[in-house]
């Protein structure tokens, strides 16, 4: 319990905004809309961070639309070919999913997507192990496009794999005689 | 911890090589030496031309000074490695290899390539075996689960290579699969 409360990634993920439509009037909370209104009127649309939206929705003060990264259009694209979807533009920090019925399906999609992209990540990492900086002039277009579309966590994995392979290469090419 | 971040997740191959060099290998000494105490244990006496078992680090040292000949371990020859390679390419699971074969083979082939009949052939066989095993571990990646991972017969250096990546990937999978089952919001 304590871990999740302090988990940086969870905090950042919960800070993502969700489009909500208020069902009731809320006096004196107009500053949430960023505008000059004093109160929030019913049926007005606002961007609310997830941690606040959660309470509002469960207390039935507002409704929300599923944010774009989790829409069915994106989901269909992921189902079709997970590796060609550019995740960087969609999900800022690695969105956590919602905690009700659509969530199970959502998590299945996420897991499948993750697995499909994983092999591609490690292939690319092994291929680019020898290149120190991130400039790769002679790489194929598709490889570059995939790497630009990597989500934050995927970039971490890419860096880890690349480091392992680089260490191995360096070790294999070193020799005893050169050390003595 | 004073270690750089990259070293906290995994051991580097040079460290594994150091650990592997504690293993004993047979040598034919060319000089005589009394039974001497070292930090890891007492070895010797060296009485040429009879064989003696010493740690690999010592054998490498003596060899570099031209004071011994190294006897190849029983698994480091063409027939054995060829057989293992065919097994590796035909069976879906990893074949049995000595746990630290990569490190030992590298050190011995480096310092004592003249003590082996065809060191080039051995090097290419080892490379092929390594690549075949790498391909298998890559396939295992697609079946990655968030709970357990079972890769029998994987060797020290291979485990070390995939460890940071696999552990992180499994962590992400744990987050993704556990979320809907349990409530994460701590209010």
TrEMBL record, chain A:
Q: Where in the cell is it found?
A: Nucleus
CDD domains assigned: GINS_A_psf3, GINS_B_Psf3
Position of the signal peptide: none
InterPro entries linked:
GINS_bundle-like_dom_sf, GINS_Psf3, GINS_Psf3_sf, PSF3_N
Superkingdom of this protein's organism: Eukaryota
Describe its assembly.
Answer: Component of the GINS complex.
The entry's function note states:
The GINS complex plays an essential role in the initiation of DNA replication.
How is this protein named in the record?
DNA replication complex GINS protein PSF3
Lineage of the species this protein comes from: Eukaryota, Fungi, Dikarya, Basidiomycota, Agaricomycotina
From TrEMBL, chain B:
Q: Which SUPFAM superfamilies match?
A: GINS helical bundle-like (SSF158573), PriA/YqbF domain (SSF160059)
**GO annotation terms (biological process):** chromosome segregation; DNA replication; double-strand break repair via break-induced replication
Any keyword Nucleus?
yes
Q: What InterPro entries does this protein map onto?
A: GINS_A, GINS_bundle-like_dom_sf, GINS_Psf2, PSF2_N
Pfam families given in the database record:
PSF2_N, Sld5
- UniProt KW keywords: Chromosome partition, DNA replication, Nucleus
Q: What is its main location?
A: nucleus
Q: Where in the cell is it found?
A: Nucleus
GO cellular component, as recorded: GINS complex
Residue limits of the GINS subunit domain? 75-173
Q: Which residues form the DNA replication complex GINS protein PSF2 N-terminal domain?
A: 13-71
- Taxonomically, which superkingdom? Eukaryota
**What family is reported?**
Belongs to the GINS2/PSF2 family.
Oligomeric and partner information: Component of the GINS complex.
Protein name in UniProt: DNA replication complex GINS protein PSF2
> What's the source species' lineage?
Eukaryota, Fungi, Dikarya, Basidiomycota, Agaricomycotina
